[in-house]
Design brief:
Elements: H1 2-10, H2 12-46, H3 68-109, H4 113-126, E1 132-134, E2 140-142
Antiparallel strand pairs: 1-2
Transmembrane segments: 21-48, 68-91
Main location: membrane
Keywords: Cell membrane, Ion channel, Ion transport, Membrane, Transmembrane, Transmembrane helix, Transport
């Protein structure tokens, strides 16, 4: 039983999830601050810091029904989604693109010894003199006349 739990915890997905939860909890104050600033601006425009009281009504003297609370929740969700996208998703995507470009360039540059020997053999077998062959570093090598 403990071995199964240990395997689960050691799995990459469980560790990534734990890191995501911790980072999410640490990121919450930043999102809350951004939301407070934007909702403050909205409050200055409409006269209320949120939309909770917009469209408020009561039925037969009951507690007030606030359809504006839904609008406030939607605005908060959109603000959080925008903050997460620009602060986390966009930078991570750019980092992945840069990493992928570097890996592709490294793969394209790598030429094995066998391939180089085949190129040399083909050049020598062709009996061509003063032929330039591109090397893996991008420079030229001139083959001298025999």
């Amino acid at each position: 039983m403990l071995k199964g739990f240990k395997d689960f915890i050691a799995q990459g997905n469980a560790l990534e999830l734990a890191v995501a939860v911790i980072i999410g909890a640490a990121f919450k104050p930043i999102v809350d601050a951004i939301t407070a600033v934007i909702m403050g601006i909205i409050g200055a425009v409409i006269g209320s810091p949120n939309f909770d009281s917009v469209g408020q009504f009561t039925i037969n003297g009951s507690d007030p029904i606030q359809p504006g609370a839904i609008v406030t929740a939607i605005v908060n969700f959109l603000l959080i989604a925008i903050a997460v996208y620009f602060c986390i998703v966009l930078p991570m995507n750019k980092l992945k693109e840069r990493t992928a470009k570097t890996e592709v360039e490294e793969e394209a540059v790598e030429v094995t010894d066998t391939e180089l020997l085949v190129q040399i053999r083909d050049l020598l077998a062709g009996g061509r003199a003063n032929v330039t062959a591109e090397t893996t570093t991008g420079g030229d090598i001139e083959t001298p006349r025999a």
